[in-house]
Design a protein that fits this description.
Strand order of the largest sheet: 1-5-6-4-3-2
Number of helices: 9
Helix content: 25-40%
Low-confidence stretches: 1-33, 193-202, 309-315
Mean pLDDT: 81
CATH superfamily of the largest domain: Transferase(Phosphotransferase) domain 1
Distance between the termini: 47 Å
Order of helices and strands: EEEEHEEHHEEEEHHHHHH
Length: 315
């Protein structure tokens, strides 16, 4: 099969819709020790759309505590259901020993329909994509902080043999204290063996590494851990530039353009006014051959992030 025939689905941002009908009655159960029932929660508004469902801001009726609740839409496809089931399984793995750099799951509710709903911590500043659209490009000092926190989150996930496979600004949550947490695990994968293959075309096409399209041309076996590093590099460069780095400002993405840019174009260019440390860090992330990319552990020792914010590094 030719490369052109192996076309993935391109996931582009989905506009917010109107609120769904009221939450189901409290016939559901929770997998956690929390006493929160689904009927205790008041739906406030849509926060966004993720792999497998819609995320709502909800409030506990008695305590007024705020949470994020991910629900499937009434018209969810079988693929959507699989994504939410996958995310539920991943969050169960991370809930026993939570990381401060991965979104916390409070409860998983089982609904009468057979579907699940996930109750997660609420991050009051939205996503890094939200901040980029609101405030414009990030200064390097903020990017160093973002990079360090996401790397710690990836280090934690990779230590559990979990590859995220969809790192991008809209999947990185942030709060008012600028704590950044990885979210949305619908296309993540638990690597059961060191050479366990990943399905190539999952996640968001624009942030896929070259070997996701053509493993043989870019290092042989697809390495999900290295692919997460590529996605992080593109994410940081997008936050620095203010637009997606493989396309011109305002250019509309399509699969063919993205595939050509990722596989056949030069690595994204770092602007000349960037510091030597940031430029070096980007080059370590955005090596087109997976084997030349730095690992998460190596990147945590890079001067761009090392020695900065050690209070977070020790968490």
């Amino acid at each position: 099969m030719s490369l052109a025939q192996r076309r993935p689905n391109l996931r582009l941002p989905i506009p917010s819709d109107h609120l769904r009908p009221p939450l189901p009655p409290s016939t559901s159960s929770s997998t956690s020790t929390s006493t929160i029932a689904l009927s205790d929660l008041e739906k406030l508004h849509v926060l966004g759309h993720g792999n497998g469902g819609t995320v709502y801001k909800v409030r506990h009726r008695r305590t007024s505590s705020l949470y994020a609740l991910k629900l499937l839409s009434p018209t969810a496809s079988s693929d959507d259901r699989r994504l939410l089931t996958r995310e539920t399984d991943i969050l169960r793995r991370t809930s026993s020993l939570p990381s401060p750099h991965v979104v916390l799951c409070h409860s998983v509710f089982h609904l009468p329909s057979g579907d699940s709903a996930i109750l997660m911590e609420y991050m009051d500043s939205g996503t890094l994509d939200t901040l980029l659209r609101r405030d414009g490009p990030f200064p390097e000092s903020s990017l160093s902080d973002v990079a360090r926190q996401v790397l710690h989150g990836l280090s934690y996930l990779h230590s559990l043999s979990i590859v995220h496979r969809d790192i991008k600004p809209s999947n990185l949550l942030v709060d008012s204290d600028f704590r950044v947490k990885i979210s949305d695990f619908g296309v993540s994968k638990v690597m059961c063996r060191s050479l366990d293959p990943c399905t190539s075309y999952v996640g968001t096409c624009a942030y896929m590494s070259p070997e996701r399209f053509d493993p043989e041309a870019y290092g042989g076996n697809y390495d999900g851990y290295a692919a997460d590093v590529w996605s992080l590099g593109l994410t940081l460069l997008e936050l620095y530039l203010g637009y997606f780095p493989l396309l011109g400002p305002g250019q509309r993405p399509d699969w063919a353009t993205l595939m050509c840019a990722i596989c056949f174009g030069e690595p994204p260019e770092i602007p000349g006014d960037a510091s030597a440390e940031f430029r070096s860090f980007m080059e370590c992330c955005l090596q087109k051959e997976a084997g030349k990319r730095w690992s998460v552990k190596q990147l945590l020792s890079h001067p761009f992030v090392a020695g900065k914010g050690s209070e977070l590094s020790d968490l």
